[in-house]
Amino acid sequence: MSVRPSALALTPLLLFLALFFGAGLYYTEQGDAMGFYRLHAPVAILPAIALGLWIAHRAGVKAMDTLLQGIGDSNIILMCLIFLLAGAFAMVTKQIGAVDAVVALGVGALPPALILPGLFLVAGFLSLAVGTSMGTIAAVTPIALGVSDAAGIDRALVVGAVLGGATFGDNLSVISDTAIAAARTQGCTVREKFRENVKIALPAALLTLVVLGLVGDASPVEAAEPTSAWLVLPYVLVLALAITGLDVLVVLTIGLVVAGLFGLWFGPADYALPNFADDIYAGFEGVVEITLLALFIGGLGALMKASGGLDWLARQITRIARGNTGRRTGEWCIAALASLTDVFTANNTVAILISGGVARDIAERHDVPPARAASVLDIFVCIVQSLLPYGAQILLAASLASLSPLALMGKVHYCWLLAGVTVLFMVWPSRRARAATHGDA
């Protein structure tokens, strides 16, 4: 049965955001420094799911089946497994002294001003090579946190640099699922999309390096206690395996096992197999909240889509686009469509797949070249996804760093600079195209 597009179907997510942010702001205003932890997100989303079930039922949708299908979606389950393994890897490497080993052996050689730019470049290179921001965040964040503590840099700044680098690489990588989906839906090749995309992303990355070199208030890293150089190898192995293109779950599993073995051989004298098992479970416990939220977000997204919410959103964007002419309008509509769809799905690949057909129709109507449309589409879903406080990337990073997602939003400098540079590029070519048109006339 076909469900009519409905704005009402989007209200559950608005309810969740109102409860979560409203409670956080209220308790923060009352002087609670941890105000955004008073009402946990997996609890705040429960009334929204109840509302989504009611709306879906009234629309004639099999509400409970749809919810369970959304929760059990393969992308959601994969995300949760990454959360769990990343949490375990981070905990084990910390407990065996691997973070201290990285700091003692490598960070002291870097000038304080280059620590943040260096982390951005490492995350960017890895993400570009493997095509996944999630795997990059899982692999690099534990190292970055050790650097943060040793150099006295704000944790949010350090993790923000990693998030920015992961977004940069994921957006440009020719093997990224978002790049492939954007290119296919817009009718261009991935390489054509890359050539268009790099013109925007590279200036934003260079600006980010300058900003990170200025904002990091680091101190020279003090010499740590003597530690075994062998403890660095689990990180090196994870980075090397990730670059080869091996599945992120396999990479994290191998890294976890190797970290445990190295901990038994080269770690603290009292580190034994029971400690390894306890640390794995402690890592799981550390990411329970984001794992539950990811499952619930998957279910809520499925309910909103089945109830016609995303169809209504796409129809409104299309209506605006049809009422205006010009390439600039087309690009703005594609950007708005990509951003809003990602807000309501919290998954950049899914957002592209949902909005890709409408974006291509807009591009054709407004003479936006396919590679340009694919670039704008991919850029804006990546920007929004990396800044969403309930998105997988920022949730994983915040959980590993024991930070509020909101504390990270303003520290992901690359995403904000990418948004600004993209807007400039969207305006400037339009002027050149208009001038060329007038010249031909």
Structure description:
This protein is mainly α. The chain folds into three domains: 7-71, no CATH class; 75-289, no CATH class; 309-430, no CATH class. It is built from 21 helices and no strands. Helix 9 (177-186) packs antiparallel against helix 18 (370-387) and helix 15 (309-322) packs antiparallel against helix 16 (327-345). The chain is globular.
Structure described in brief:
This protein has 21 helices and no strands. It has helices at 11-29, 41-58, 63-71, 74-96, 98-105, 115-130, 133-151, 155-172, 177-186, 190-215, 233-243, 248-266, 273-286, 288-306, 309-322, 327-345, 348-365, 370-387, 392-401, 405-409, 413-440.
Strand content: under 5%
**Helix residue percentage:** over 70%
Shape: globular
Assembly state (oligomeric): single chain
Q: What is the number of helices?
A: 21
Strand count: 0
Largest sheet: none
Enumerate the spans where pLDDT stays under 50 for 5 or more consecutive residues: 435-441
Query: What is the CA-atom radius of gyration, in angstroms?
Result: 23 Å
Series of H and E elements: HHHHHHHHHHHHHHHHHHHHH
